[in-house]
Task: structure prediction
Amino acid sequence: MKIAVVGLGIIGGSFCKALKKYTDHYVIGINRTKSTLEKAYSDGSIDEAGNEKSLEKADVVILALYPEAAVNYIEKNGKYINKNAVVTDSAGIKSDICPKLVELSEKFGFTFVGSHPMAGKETNGYESADSDLYKGASYIIVPCGADEKSVKILSDLALEMKFGMIKISTPEEHDRMIAFTSQIPHVLACAYVMSPCCPNHKGFSAGSYKDVSRVANINAKLWSELFLENREPLIRELEILRDNILSITAAVKADDKEKIEELLEKAHNVKEALGE
Result:
């Protein structure tokens, strides 16, 4: 197939590199910054440095852009997309972006299937792209009413790129779970490093500090957009986290060792039952 990847940051760049390493598909890179396109072409990550008119020959279009930018890109350039093409996004929130892209797919005639690669790094940009970023990772597909053939095209493509699991979801389930598995850890990490103790952590910190603080090296522009797009599920999870922290806080204030043990044991049992 001919696959167009729009946006060559860490996500799009990693798609390009994985496609070139593990498949025989023809990869068209499209990016606003010309120097990044030239770099991707020179290092063999793409077969062609394309533009919006290159969309006409693509069988699959991967939008590796911020959610709002992805919608804006299709509004402007959807007219170039082949009507037999499958278009997918890579956004971390689905309830907001999926209806907009479905509507645009109906307007321009292509098929839209939502997706979300569950992988990343603390660094961004094409320089951080990695052909093995997705190796063993989960690839979430949100069909949004698309036909089984189109969903299978994306599923097979993800497995070719060495994703380890395909998860089919609705926008609502996706966003509810992402609030818990991804957004809450980022909130927690950011809140944690804002302690006045953080600048003096060296010499006092080991694995626990690293584990909790790792994702505080955050892309503020992207994550603030994702937080607001997933406002209600995130608020629900924040309230659950707040209540659990307050329960432990109250037990510590009350010098209630039995209650502290009860709460910690409850958490231990949950984690142990998951076997991971």
